[in-house]
Automatic annotation (TrEMBL):
It comes from Noviherbaspirillum humi. Pfam families: BPD_transp_2 (PF02653). GO terms for molecular function: transmembrane transporter activity. One of its GO terms (cellular component) is plasma membrane. It is a multi-pass membrane protein. It comes from the Bacteria. PANTHER family: ABC TRANSPORTER PERMEASE PROTEIN, SUGAR ABC TRANSPORTER INTEGRAL MEMBRANE PROTEIN-RELATED. This is Nucleoside ABC transporter membrane protein. Keywords: Cell membrane, Membrane, Transmembrane, Transmembrane helix.
Length: 310
């Protein structure tokens, strides 16, 4: 039993580590979608943020500044998306895809001088708690951003369901026409949500480059932005379910290493595709119950709003 726990503890710790960037990005996308805006550009925002955070850390030596730079890069990319979609009325799906492609290309170009460079892996531990058998290595030796993500989950759940501002935000996603008639600026609320979503995706991208890897490599998100997008649907737009889903997909991500450590021979190509296969399976299962989605999905999701037309 002790040997099993010794193997399980690092696996669970790695699962939390792998699930954190998915969780951060999904929280941002969830807030976007709660206001009726569907941003398919998460992958591009995360890549731009990853290179911004990595380059900043390389030149300043500060991981904190790296995270701030990543968040700022994500916000800037999201603001550009919001300008096009919310004020100019471009198609949300096409604009999001364009942002994803643009972010991938821009990060690859800017990241050329940083390819192959790496950062020293930091070690973190909460005094006393990190020495608790089993729980210490799993829960209390994580990067501080892991705890920020957990606090963000609790804050979002409270904000969306317990505050007046959260109610207004959800009302904009359900019926922007009604919110506009009550005197709320639908465009500004949507823009604020989009920028917040960009900041979360930026933190997720910076986490990949500064903590999870930590290095810069072209296309290093490897589809995690798309998994985060699917995660919001999997979670039915509820923060606590996003948390569980992120750790579930994180577990699939590190399963390959665990099986290799146990001496189980599985084709690495199959294991690499496992998180994405799980995403497809989960979405297929959810789509079998359209009533479940209809009861939870924001009614105006993916639909532009023009106050002049009301």
């Amino acid at each position: 039993m002790d040997n099993f726990l010794l193997l399980l503890a690092p696996a669970l710790a790695a699962t939390i580590n792998a699930g954190t960037p998915l969780m951060l990005a999904a929280f941002g996308l969830l807030v976007n979608e709660k206001t009726g805006v569907l941003n398919l550009g998460a992958e591009g925002m995360m890549l731009v943020a990853a290179i911004a955070g990595f380059a900043t850390t390389i030149h300043t030596g500060s991981v904190t500044l790296g995270f701030l730079a990543g968040a700022a890069a994500g916000m800037l990319a999201a603001a550009f998306f919001g300008l096009l979609v919310i004020w100019l009325g471009t198609n949300q799906y096409a604009t999001g895809l364009a942002l994803s492609i643009f972010g991938g290309g821009l990060s690859a170009f800017v990241g050329i001088p940083y390819t192959g460079r790496s950062l020293a892996a930091g070690k973190f531990a909460i005094p006393v708690l990190s020495d608790i058998p089993f729980l210490g290595p799993v829960l209390f030796r994580q990067h501080p951003m892991v705890y920020v993500a957990l606090l963000l989950c609790a804050a979002l759940a409270w904000f969306l369901m317990r505050t007046r501002t959260g109610l207004v935000l959800r009302a904009v996603g359900e019926s922007p026409e009604s919110a506009h008639a009550l005197g709320y600026s639908v465009r500004r609320i949507r823009m604020a949500a989009v920028v917040f979503g960009g900041a979360c995706c930026g933190l997720a991208g910076a986490y990949l480059a500064l903590v999870y890897t930590p290095l810069w490599q072209e296309g290093m998100t490897a589809g995690k932005g798309w998994i985060a997008l699917a995660l919001t649907t999997f979670a039915c737009w509820k923060p606590w379910r996003v948390l569980g889903g992120a750790y579930l997909f994180g577990g699939f991500t590190i399963l390959q290493l665990n099986l290799q450590g146990l001496g189980i021979a599985v084709a690495p190509q199959f294991m690499a595709m496992l998180p994405y296969l799980a995403t497809v399976v989960v979405l297929a299962l959810i789509s079998r119950n359209p009533d479940w989605i209809r009861l939870n999905i924001p009614a105006s999701l993916g639909k532009n709003f023009n106050p002049a037309a009301v």
